[in-house]
Write a structure and sequence with these properties.
homohexamer; alpha/beta; seven-stranded parallel β-sheet; four-stranded antiparallel β-sheet; 10 helices; 13 strands; 42% helix; elongated
Chain lengths: 272, 272, 272, 272, 272, 272
């Protein structure tokens, strides 16, 4: 997907029709509110593609205060108008994700400075790369990119195995075959959590558990000292501290993907 | 962008490691709440790509009640696990957009049954096609796809033209050259609105105007009977009726793009 | 489609076999006859891809007199031979389209300086972007890019609607739903023309009408002052003035797409 | 390049707006005049992509008489309208090339039944595959696809070699290195023709020679019995027989690429 | 990369020139020697693309004895000749990798049935997916797909950190940030091995160590019971058992990527 | 296929996790043994894509002695770590092919300085371009790229023609239709060789013949002075001289494609 082409297509009718393409101008991107910025690398690619000269004042992950300039560029009006909206969109959406991720990270670290905020593979289809880069700019990490980089056992896998004997046998094979990976199992009750901890799961992904059940799962870490516990499902800025307080090792969430875009101001001016 | 590849990559390690790929199974997608569904066509492509047999119970734009089945499919467990999450993501995100668009449309039509809800080109980069299809499933229409299909004059164009004489001359050229298009101008005050209506703008896009100014702009329709007025900026479900009441012809909004995904239940079962 | 790869593939056997790749040379493109040039931007991309230094003497849309230089470039013989034919092809085909479009525009404007020459979506498959850029260089505009950017009702749509009552109802819905677009209907007789003008068509595309019928359609503009009339089908340099004289607002044609390529001279020389 | 996407993009606004997509219909393609048809395989791909059932009455290269049916298809009106214009375009442009190639072949074979009509690499950029398939449907062959499949020495190569001694030495290397290829040299005078025949060229491409010079080149075949002679430059239906009469082995031409598209009738009807 | 296009391009000149395309035929793929087969899924895609009917007798990872049939297909001679060589290539190269991987696995498991054979990211550029699928068919697993799915610390990282204090601090951050991943360090001496084991490495990748040093590293597993030890560099079928005997947990190797292709017989016959 | 993306994907977790990306460094590629280098152009593309400054000491096809530097580059550690492995892979695999091709060429030319080493279309699927460039760097040439650039008649074609009369007729058509190509036939016995030489084959590809049969085929060159003879099947460095001694014109082989990669040392250092 060429992002510039998605927005501009074959031509910019308005700029052509007004006959202003050959004028020289400047375009300045700044933040309308305090944000954690993301999307800089992608915008730089757009600016290069449009033959615009640019100056960066910020890098991905930087704090930007209200009205602070993020980057500026110069060139033909035809180039500025090509680059404008897709660059603004990249910064608004990606900074929105970065800023919200950073909010979750900050809230969570107030309770436990070692907590990790990890985002799921439930990104908007086609937008995985952009969304994950924004998450990392905000201080989060990818939980798993997809089925190719990690092992995560769901109930939807187990139904094809049948009884516990079969599960245990196949789980052992899985764990052994992919010994370079940590093995995660999604569980939604204590019994399953205990079972998978006991047969060697490295990590339990506790799905939409109530506080009490989740606490019991966290307590398993005493019996299984290498076990890591995460909480997933329904986490957001208003409840994240509750989960962290229980003592989970990390939080798995899709919430940053739906964060509201931030507002980026774009000022254009003529260069005489 | 191949959406299946984005999620699955080279292989599904968990399914391979558990050795369940050759089992036969069934997968059913249903709505956890009342929604307007979207994403069916895209899911069908995924199911075909995974060699799954499927039955559709709904089409894009259909209402789905809580727990109602949207579609179901059958085939190898390896195929079901490949198709699962990306299909669920497509339905959740796209139905989220469709459902929210439909909410805006319903609220607006309660006031004015002829109102049109139109969405901007400020989609998530790389997701324009999916987002616009979802908007249309919800009863909205695309405002403009990009710079190639429509004329929209911004202040950022006008600064390159200078004085009013020059603007008027070039505006006439633009309007004439692209006589098959309606010419829109974005304005944020009454003076500009009047000016562009008087030199022949077909549509005014009233950007973040207060109610009083917007009302004055709508009143221009008396003097300029073919003029269409839209309101844009900051529209959402809590304020849309206020804008409609003023008498605008259509609403331009990006809000549906950030709608929260709906919850889609996925039930998998073994076929013996 | 990478245009350079289409022509060069993996390598240039002749240049390799003769062992001349490392020599330095210069390549000059000039016009063998008076033309309106197009393809400059595409050639520049090729030259950059081949690491050639270049100087442009013309821009898309410029007049070039016989023997006048359009652009020149320097670099390794291997690069010159890579860039040569595809660059020549781009200039010859695109300037052919631009020059012919310009001829039509000139002929038409001799009769009516406000006439617009608009080209159809019947371009050579895969060549839409290049063909439309050439049309614009010659002073034409795109009639419609495809089905996604404009509304054009054909008989082939109407047959699925049945009687006039149904047509009228659905036409109203169409017009209202896409209120940001002008609605065009293709008609081939006066009765249909009158009918669609009366139910609100913004533009009539008069398909292969005789002069008398077309004149009657143009006369509808008195009754429907906002109505725009175009003529389409069989327009070329020998008959275009006849259509313009009748008073149509614009001409819709595919003729420029089949224009004969112009001849571009390519002189190569050694840099000692 | 996805040809369907080039024409349809994200959606077909007219069909959606009129609400006719779910109707069933039939579409029939027939020839408005006698043609040699081409583009069938490409149209079949489009029809499949649109989920249309089809019947073929002709294959690429077949003669089609006036009003004869080429193919027909059935399905949803939404699918018919998606497939319509791009299919028509493919058939019109490709059959135009095939028909014109066939005319050249027929004219030439009237004089010499062994003559070969070969088309250059000067196709419209991005359309090489479609244009060459059409040429082959009309009885022609590709002269060379590009620089990767054949050896063709131009003056623009020789200038980098300098004197005759150097040319002779490098020509021998070239011929030896690529011994699996026939070596062609483009010449525009008899002296060069004789020279390259004498140092072992397999084929001479005689560029825009007058009849007398070309005859002298053909006469070289007596002294060099394996030598093949072609004529190139400015060949068309009105002069091709003159070149063939001289006794060349084959004709190299770009003329079919600019052939006028043929007219294909498309009839659509409702299936009740 | 479309594999069929890479081999066939625009057309198959020989089949066209001989005029045999419309004949019906059958093509049978069998093994010339005992192999572990791979490439079946890729061949099936080719056969479908060529509209050939096929029957599979084997799946990826199956043993095939000498002369045993792997798959057969039927259709037009033009389709058989299109599909032939690329299908044969896929089976020969991928089965070559699978068979060699299987040899390594068998040799290693003779010594330690729990050993894992893992292949590096040093595949032939552009062939990662095909090579890794073949490795898995032979019983191996991917060590890491690239930099995006796993953590592997090289000396080339550490030089940018400076002294041990800095390394220890940053290593802790790395380990914590990516707590869902096992952290591997490549070491080539015991001192480094001990150091990284002591600061929490999950796995040590022992690069080209002599037997004695490698044994000392394996002995670290007593002090660090969760530590996994792998051997990498220069492993092949003649020495793999030596490494396994020392007690490493897994072997990391690129050797299967350069395995000689196996011979696949292709028999074609006419269907009358 | 973007080669950098294949190796790096969305990000380099290790470099990010260690926080070293912004350090400045230098990376030097040198040969661990005497090689013929290939892959330089592809590595240059990678280095540019990673914004690294580079200096080249060698070009494709150059000899590199042990420890000699091939190229070096400087930039951010994040860029060096992105470019590292894929660049090393390109140089190792492509130089492996070039070095082995060069060995075959050298051995063969010791016997006959005019011999040509030509490589088949049986490359690793998806790697044709890289493999062929490496072959050419080593002094070989491509035998045929695929079915689109050359004529090669196999038994698998002939079975569809039937008796000799039919073969002879169609062979004549083939030869005539593609008169710009040399026509090759693969044969595995003298009788067929004689037959095809007598009906006008330009080249015979002698498949896995014993020395005596091959010698008889070479002897055909006396009767058919333009006939070229190649040997194919099972050629490698230990037997190539035997084939050359017989007097074949060229050797057709796939052996270089499976050549073992050479070892390239990569030294990274900090720039203070």
């Amino acid at each position: 997907m060429n992002l510039l082409h998605e927005d501009i297509g074959y031509f910019d009718l308005t700029t052509i029709g007004l006959g202003i393409g050959a004028c020289a101008g400047k375009m300045v991107f700044s933040a309308k509110s305090k944000i954690v910025v993301s999307g800089i690398d992608e915008v730089v690619k757009i600016l290069k593609e449009c033959d615009l000269k640019y100056t960066l004042f910020k890098q991905d992950g930087d704090d930007v205060t209200q009205n602070e300039i993020i980057l500026e560029c110069e060139g033909f009006a035809s180039s500025l108008h090509k680059a404008w909206k897709i660059s603004q969109n990249l910064l608004e959406y990606m900074s929105g994700i970065a800023t919200y991720t950073h909010l979750l990270v900050t809230l969570a670290k107030d309770i436990n400075p070692h907590i990790v905020i990890s985002t799921t593979r439930k990104n908007f289809p086609s937008a995985k790369e952009l969304m994950l880069k924004a998450v990392m700019a905000g201080g989060g990490v990818p939980h798993r990119l997809g089925t190719y980089d990690s092992i995560l056992v769901f109930k939807q896998h187990l139904i094809f195995l049948g009884d516990k004997a079969k599960i245990q046998e196949r789980f052992a094979v899985l764990k052994h075959k992919f010994l370079e990976k940590k093995i995660t199992v999604e569980v939604d009750n204590f019994e399953d959590a205990y079972y998978f901890a006991s047969i060697g799961a490295d990590m339990l992904q506790c799905e939409k558990m109530d506080i009490k059940t989740l606490s019991s799962c966290v307590a398993l870490k005493k019996e299984f000292p290498n076990l890591l516990i995460s909480s997933t499902g329904g986490v957001n800025e208003s409840n994240i501290q509750n989960f962290v307080k229980i003592g989970v090792d990390f939080i798995v969430t899709s919430a940053p993907y739906h964060a509201k875009p931030v507002d980026i101001r774009v000022d254009m001016s003529v260069i005489e």
